[in-house]
């Protein structure tokens, strides 16, 4: 519970600075752009070799509140969003079938999280260019990989990333932003194979379309 309160405190700190912030609501539509990847997993007892493949991530819809300040040439913004994400995996036996002769299994990983993107940049003729960090905190997660005795849940609840954004301000109230997000965790970080965290060397980078309306 401490991490969600920490994220909320950070947003409040941004809003309560000397500058005058405007509050609003926003919605994000995100597409994960990371390509498919796989890793070979092996164990001696029971003897098995499994090819675990990351297939895709479903498009994500996030929504929440925003705080925005226009300082003339410079702007500052912080969001607090709620999102639900589903990732798809395939586990295929290479050496022997696992879990009672099922050679190929499709798995899903679903989690909900709070997202806190903080950004700052330059404004010119209603065009907004900026960048900044992203903090994510997992509220809950479920993993159907647990249907196999070989796999279990793992991973951190708090993670981070970095974003670049290009936006346009309409009527001094509506913002449309395109964002490129780079995340610093592995797509399979929440999965362990016989107690060892799985690494695919692939991170869940995203392309995001944001719509925000400010008071």
Would you give an account of this structure?
This protein has 215 residues and is mainly beta. Helix content is 7%, strand content 64%. The protein has 1 helix and 13 strands. The protein has one helix spanning 2-15, and strands at residues 22-32, 37-43, 48-57, 60-70, 74-93, 104-124, 127-143, 151-153, 158-170, 174-183, 191-193, 196-197, 206-214. The strands form 2 sheets. An 8-stranded antiparallel β-barrel has the order 1-4-5-6-7-9-10-13. The mean pLDDT is 84.
Write the topology of this structure:
Layout (H helix, E strand, L loop, with lengths): L1 H14 L6 E11 L4 E7 L4 E10 L2 E11 L3 E20 L10 E21 L2 E17 L7 E3 L4 E13 L3 E10 L7 E3 L2 E2 L8 E9 L1
- Poorly predicted residue ranges: none
Q: What's the end-to-end separation, in Å?
A: 30 Å
Q: How would the global form be characterised?
A: elongated
* Count of individual beta strands: 13
Major beta-sheet overview: 8 strands, antiparallel, barrel
SSE succession? HEEEEEEEEEEEEE
- Oligomeric description of these chains: single chain
Quick recap:
This protein has 215 residues and is mainly beta. The protein has 1 helix and 13 strands; from the N terminus they run H-E-E-E-E-E-E-E-E-E-E-E-E-E.
Q: Which descriptors would you attach to this protein?
A:
215 residues; mainly beta; Porin; eight-stranded antiparallel barrel; 7% helix
